[in-house]
Amino acid sequence: MSDGLAARAAAQAILSDVLRKKRPLDAAFDRLGTLPARDAGFARTIAGETLRRLGQIEDLVRHLVPKSPAPHKSGPTLEILYAATCELLFLNVAPHAAVDAANRLARADSKAMHFKPLINAVLRRVAREGRAHVAAQDAPRLNTPDWLWARWTAAYGEDTARAIAAAHARPAPVDLVLKDKAYAGQPDAKILFDGVARLSASSRIDELPGFADGHWWVQDAAATLPAGLMGDVAGRTVIDLCAAPGGKTMQLAARGANVIAVERDAARLMRMRDNLERTHLPATLVESDVRDFRPAAPAPFVLLDAPCTATGTIRRHPDLPWIKSASDVTYCEQAAAELLAVAADMVAPSGLLVFAVCSLEPEEGALQVENFLRLRSDYRREPVTAKDMFGYDEWISAEGDLRTLPCHLAPQGGMDGFFAARLRRL
Predict the structure, then answer these.
(1) What is the span of the domain harbouring residue 90?
(2) Where among 112, 137, 162 does a domain terminate?
(3) Domain ends where: 106, 137, 168?
(4) Is pTM beyond 0.70 here?
(5) Is 308 an active-site residue?
(6) Which residues have CB under 8 Å from 341's CB, separation 6+?
(7) Which of the following is catalytic: 242, 308, 358, 407?
(8) What is the full per-residue pLDDT of the chain (426 aa) written as tens digits?
């Protein structure tokens, strides 16, 4: 294949994996195989932006094709239509290139080939009329599935829900945590706070200055905040539970903590080990389920970044709204409660437990902590202060917990949605 057709074929296959099989986008990217870097990058862009704008694209296609073809009869017809519509309206690809490539993809599939006249006619109308239709759309609402929209409007109000959804329409920038805050090797980066630098342009991470020498690691600005809630950890033991991908472990190690990092996934643990070696930071790595781990002694600091629906990271994972559902919130809520109870027993008297999730859902964050404090009279909340948040008091909830939203830092490109509570053992 040539002229970008290989990239488009890969993007169409990735979209089929995500939308039909509910396969995570990062896993579906294995479809890229041995594609040249340029084609792989184009395929990633098409698939990612199609998912980011999926509600708008579906709305337009339904307008033009009121009765969509059944997938079992039409093969990848809808995915071809969605991806080409994205190219035309959101990636500004020349109409002749996008339409011709879609026709060729349809012709190459035994089922989609029968719908080639439909694909051709619809895409030519998209090229002529699509921009006017998109301009009249309610993009934040359309690009947010009903199950999430209902939850966010109930939790945050419609205005904030709209701001969150609008933030998801923009790809997330790359943030770096500088091991040495005085490091000046990234001239195209801007310091946000406390040694967190935001790149002004995307590029290959492993080709940036300072990568090989371990001067920094990649971590979203919001994800750096929970570890900072522990204060001075130099020379103290910190147990980091569910530690992968390792950003918090490296933060704590860089501050002089004796970190015991617990992670049950062997492959993720290996990547952590590689990153620690690259950044020349020490930590004790333990491969174990949190529920099976027993520390030699209670620790003065324990950090639990619990598994969750990760709805705070949709800017980076635009597939999440379409592969998850409200039932996932219930499952994660129950699992986190179990892990939080186990983590609490690892904390020494007067010690500090920081509980964090990269979710926007109250059941996984604020309500989780409320339930925990009702059950554990030996714990109390230690409120987060504006000083802890570098003066950004909008990152603090009414209850005194950390609560960042994707629309925070909007002028600088936003940030992930994170919740964290600081809990002191009595």
Answers:
(1) 5-137
(2) 137
(3) 137
(4) yes
(5) no
(6) 372, 375
(7) 358
(8) 457 999 999 999 999 999 999 999 999 999 998 899 999 999 999 999 999 999 999 999 999 998 878 778 899 999 999 999 999 999 999 999 999 999 999 999 999 999 999 999 999 999 999 999 999 999 999 999 999 999 999 999 999 999 999 999 999 999 999 998 878 777 788 999 999 999 987 778 888 899 999 999 999 999 999 999 999 999 999 999 999 999 999 999 999 999 999 999 999 999 999 999 999 999 999 999 999 999 999 999 999 999 999 999 999 999 999 999 999 999 999 999 999 999 999 999 999 999 999 999 999 999 999 999 999 999 999 999 999 999 999 999 999 999 999 999 999 999 999 999 999 999
Q: Are 239 and 132 part of one and the same domain?
A: no
Pairing outcome for strands 175-178 and 196-199: antiparallel
Closest to 226 (Cα-Cα) out of 333, 351, 355: 355
Residue 357 near residue 305, CB atoms below 8 Å:
yes
- Is 27 inside a domain boundary? yes
Claim to verify: residue 246 and residue 360 sit in the same structural domain:
yes
Rounded to an integer, what distance in angstroms lies between the CA atom of residue 226 and that of residue 232? 13
